[in-house]
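Internal tracking record. Fields below are filled automatically when a chain is submitted to the structure queue. Please do not edit lines marked as system-generated. If the sequence contains nonstandard residues, flag them in the REMARKS field before resubmitting.
Queue: standard
Priority: normal
Entity type: single polypeptide chain
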Amino acid sequence: MDDYKRRLLVTRKSLSEVTEKLKEQMLKTTKSDNLVRELYIENANLVEALFVTEKRQKVAEKAQFRHQTKYESLVKEFTNFMPAVINSVSHGQ
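SYSTEM-GENERATED OUTPUT FOLLOWS
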């Protein structure tokens, strides 16, 4: 009978050790799961922010192109207009 008691105690101790290891492993797994979940959410937010930024960049590039075109047109008109003004001022004196 003493042999059975000893075996039972050894088995209980072994079971307790395995249970404790499994609890620790479960805690680690839960922490890892939470980290992965947080990273997934952060990644989704970053992808959305990137999409918005790229959209704003495209709008800004279009606006810059329109402004550049207007600027070049004004410079051309100014260049064409200035000789006439200079000639009229010099002939008027």
